[in-house]
Amino acid sequence: MLASCMAMTTHLISLAAALAFAAPLAAQDEAEAPPSPGEIVDQAAADEWKAIPAEDLLVMTLAPDSQGNERQVVIQLLPAPYSETWTANIRTLARTGWYDGIAVIRSQDNYVVQWGDPETGGQPKPLPPELLETTEADYISTSMHGDQDSIVLWHPRNAIDDNYAGSTLFYDGWPLGFEIGESTKQLTRWPLHCYGMVGVARSMSPNAGDGSSLYTVIGHAPRHLDRNIALAGRIVEGMEHLSTLPRGKGALGFYEDASRQTPIVSVRVASDLPARERPEFEFLDTEGETFNRYAEARMNRRDPFFIVPAGGADICNIPVPVRRVAE
Amino acid sequence: MLASCMAMTTHLISLAAALAFAAPLAAQDEAEAPPSPGEIVDQAAADEWKAIPAEDLLVMTLAPDSQGNERQVVIQLLPAPYSETWTANIRTLARTGWYDGIAVIRSQDNYVVQWGDPETGGQPKPLPPELLETTEADYISTSMHGDQDSIVLWHPRNAIDDNYAGSTLFYDGWPLGFEIGESTKQLTRWPLHCYGMVGVARSMSPNAGDGSSLYTVIGHAPRHLDRNIALAGRIVEGMEHLSTLPRGKGALGFYEDASRQTPIVSVRVASDLPARERPEFEFLDTEGETFNRYAEARMNRRDPFFIVPAGGADICNIPVPVRRVAE
To answer: Which residues of chain A from 211 to 230 reach within 8 Å of chain B, CB to CB?
Structure first.
């Protein structure tokens, strides 16, 4: 979805208008009209796109849909220093084949879709012994003010006011919250529950989740979950295969009828795939000039459809451009 | 979806945990644990629920799904003084039967689902002559500071900081943005593009849309559309029938293949239906004490699942409780 966000414009037009206006507008206004956010991204120089390591990409294959169409979802895992025990566990679960044969077990409207062990036969599937311990303290990443990361992070250009965190910004391709301890001067930062982000299901605290059950956000950003659950990554392709699943009728959107669950055939780390099957993705450098222009345009739409620029945006309404590398 | 939001809690739990924890927690912690937002709403007194007039409810019946299940969506129209020309047109289009036989023509992930004239045969369907003219000026509602409405609106209790509007608040059951002109002291206010809100598709300005094509928000709130398009209402039941529709593969999520469109069988104003078929809904008084406690709890989750209360929320993450009146 993050990739497809970039292809869209935000015009809400009738079908008739789409047909009637598309050609004349393109010819007439292209030279003069301020560019849309998507057009700004299209103008980025090649070196503003940063490759996502194949070790950070997961390919999740769902069972085909009722019409026999293939359904593949690509997940980008968070890089260090965020959620490292969980992303290590997720790679272990993928590499041991543990995820193969689990299912999407929950779909709750305007909230999350969740996958995990369906416990067919009433017994949980034994977990690999090499999983790491996870702790709530690791929901945030802490560093001392003054290191190189902190200096970049302090760059005020990308800071965005926020009702949940002291402030938010984009850094290294991700939306983050951050706070500076008044006395300690310690910097804490954490990833945010925007649309399409992937998190680690857990039960009651102090359980911090092991990575065997994951969810993705399919509605308005549930930012109250920030710092309360580990985020582990985001969907970069195939989001629609999860967001359109029928909603579960049980409590919290769990499927009461197991036949409504969607089987997960396999989950593979992209770097383990043969080169020709390995998907390649890249994201727009969030420290670059183009991203800065793009974010500003998302806050102040001046392309022809718009009348009143908003003057701002919340960070989850500025999706980081991610795209598949053309073959 | 607004109704179903109220039934949910935000626990992200594994299926095993759900089964294992549900009973003991209910018995053990109910008396002591701070209530969840949903539990607060459940405690509201009967007179804090306000009836929605049947004249403000639309019943939209989609064709049955591929398994023959019925699909009904209930829309609440915005009350005066918002979008009055559009809501009048929508009632006219419903009462003349114009909507019967149109279709869902667009589904764009993390954005909108839109319905309107599919132009089968290449010809637009003629519109009823009695439709009112609409103008962009009516995207906002203006009043002089000092009238009774403004005084209530100034009540600081419900005001929430916002990156798009000067400030936002809940008033008479709806999320609104508002601004006061510095020299004029005029108050302007407008409804907000939260999840499930229904708006009026338009082509390029100064076209302001006539109500024959509508959309609903199925992703993170596209608040940049506020004051740029007319909102006309919100979905109060059956949101999942729209949000789970397959995404269109054409530009902006339009269906390239007309066979993927979902036919709309009929749209009726509830007050025109026989009494026994008339759905009845009510919303939680947003000026009441219970709503205030609910909104505060959405900003500071203290129920047992949570570790770090956020300290705030954006207005679209505080859905107004709406429920069907029990028969």
So the answer is: 212-213, 215, 219-229
DSSP letter for A261, please: S
Fold of A64-279: Cyclophilin (2.40.100)
Q: What is the identity of the amino acid at B37?
A: P
CB B324 within 8 A of CB B237: yes
**Residues found in chain A:** 327
Q: Could you tell me the CATH superfamily of domain B55-120+131-279?
A: Cyclophilin-like (2.40.100.10)
pLDDT at site B11: 34
Q: Is residue B16 predicted with pLDDT exceeding 50?
A: no
Mean pLDDT on A308-324: 96
Provide the H-helix boundaries in A144-190.
Answer: 148-154
Contact flag B110-A163 (C-beta cutoff 8 Å): no
CB contact under 8 A, A312 and B163: yes
Among B123, B163, B234, pick the best mutation site for testing chain A contact (most A Cβ within 10 A): B163
Please count the CA atoms within 13 angstroms of the CA of B326 that sit on its side-chain side. Answer: 2
Chain B closest-CA separation from residue A85 CA (Å): 19
CB contact under 8 A, A14 and B201: yes
Residue whose token pair is 């924890």:
B21
Q: Which of B15, B162, B192 has the most A C-beta neighbours within 10 Å, making it the best mutation to test the interface with A?
A: B15
DSSP type of residue A141 = E
pLDDT confidence band for A25 (50 / 70 / 90): very low
- pTM, two decimal places: 0.91
- Candidate from B204, B223, B254 with C-beta closest to A304: B204
**Interchain contact A123–B (C-beta under 8 A):** no
Query: What ipTM does this complex have?
Result: 0.90
Is A8 in Cβ contact with B201 (below 8 Å)? no
Check: CB of residue A70 under 8 Å from CB of residue A60.
no
The whole-angstrom separation of Cα A94 and Cα B39 is 38
Domain ranges within chain B, ordered by starting residue: 33-52+280-327, 55-120+131-279
Kindly list the distances between the CA atom of residue A266 and the CA atoms of A62, A103, B315, in Å, as whole numbers in the listed order: 7, 10, 39
In our burial notation (b when 16+ CB lie closer than 10 A, e otherwise), range B275-289 reads eeeebebbbbbbbbe
Helices (H), chain B: 2-7, 15-29, 37-42, 84-95, 148-154, 239-243, 289-299
Angle at A272 between CA A269 and CA A89, to 5 degrees: 40
pLDDT, one tens digit per residue, over B139-193 is 999 876 666 566 555 555 667 889 998 789 898 999 999 888 888 878 889 999 9
pLDDT at A297: 96
Residue with tokens 């206006």: A21
In chain B, which residues have their Cβ closer than 8 Å to the Cβ of A223? 310, 313-314, 317
DSSP state of B303: S
The partner residues of B59 in beta bridges, in order of sequence, read: B74, B268
E-assigned strand segments in A8-155: 49-51, 57-62, 71-77, 103-107, 112-116, 141-144
Separation CA A44–CA B233 (nearest Å): 39
What was the pLDDT predicted at B190?
95
Of A5, A119, A304, the CB nearest to B16: A119
Dihedral sign for Cα atoms in the order A144, A148, A149, A153: positive
